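Example 3.2
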Amino acid sequence: KQRLAKAQVNYKANKSRCSGKNKPCPPSGSQEHHSNDNSISHNRVSQLIHKFHKSVSTGPLYICSYCDQLWYKHSVCPAERLRLCNPNSTKHLQRIKSVDDIEWLCFTCDKHLKKNKVRPSATANINGLKLPEKPDFFDLNELQCRLIAPRLAFQKIMQAPRGGQLKITGNVVNVQADIFDTVNMLHRLPQDTATIKVQLKRRLQYNSSALSLNVRPNKVMQGADLIK
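Structure, written as tokens:
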């Protein structure tokens, strides 16, 4: 009997504790403060996202007059500011004007020039090492560029499920091509503006083609003469 009475007392005590745990607790001041912090942080994130979209809405249109790179508006400053504080360092500027007909400098180049230092990535521009100007006739489409390329890279590019970025799927097949044999296979047409249908395949025995477009043989020959 004593054991039974003791077991009943323990059962009632455990039941009362469990019922007390399941009772909903009234909202306390700390919980309200936590919810307010969450709303404030959410608004802060929304403001930062809006600020970022606004800063990159115009695109990288500002050309640095020192490193000759494209930058966003929030990454450049007028070069006139450098001329006022350090006139001797402006001799390396290329006098390039872009947006609003103003000469711009990126903050990295501006920091180096104020210390009379040369930015490592801009050494080639200072030494006059630049790519040649693109000729007017070199307006080739995708297939015409492939026909005069010394190497053809066949790769499968797909869009990632998250983020929408492009990624390479599978193996990359690198095929070495002879430009002169490719150009000699093209038909000689009487008119320079005439076009022919060309299909680019991994192998000639394949039925499907990797790329199929109309090309102008005269443009391909001019491009081959330029890069040979």
